[in-house]
Amino acid sequence: IYSDLGEHSKALSHIEKAVEIQEQHRDQQPSDLIALYNTLAKIHIKMESFDKALLVYEKALQLQQNSRPPN
User: Fold this and answer.
1) For residue 5, is pLDDT > 70?
2) Do 37 and 57 form a contact (C-beta atoms < 8 A)?
3) SS3 breakdown of the chain: % helix, strand, coil, rounded to 5?
4) pTM (2 d.p.)
5) Which terminus of the chain has fewer CB atoms gathered within 10 Å of its CB, N or C?
6) Contact by Cβ (8 Å): 45, 2
7) Radius of gyration in angstroms for the set of CA atoms belonging to the chain, rounded to a whole number
8) Rounded to an integer, what distance in angstroms lies between the CA atom of residue 31 and that of residue 63?
């Protein structure tokens, strides 16, 4: 909501805290952490921090690939 209001710094702070909490439970619900990473990356894009956004998207992709069941 903060990001939609243009308060990207507040949004970033809240999402980073949520990521920190969710990382402690990454094995239980990796999809929740992936969604948070995607939200975090979008905020970085709005703040024109493209390098940070790319790093976060890469974390999300890696987690997605690692959480798939083996074939």
Assistant:
1) no
2) yes
3) 70, 0, 30
4) 0.83
5) C
6) no
7) 13
8) 9
Please tell me the distance from the alpha carbon of residue 7 to that of residue 12, in angstroms, as a whole number: 9
Tokens standing for residue 10: 């507040």
pLDDT, tens only, 15-71? 999 999 998 887 778 899 999 999 999 999 999 999 999 999 999 999 999 887 766
3-class DSSP string for the chain: CCCCCCCHHHHHHHHHHHHHHHHCCCCCCHHHHHHHHHHHHHHHHHCCCHHHHHHHHHHHHHHHHHCCCCC
Q: Residue 3 corresponds to which tokens in the numbers above?
A: 């990001």
Q: Are 43 and 3 in contact (CB under 8 A)?
A: yes
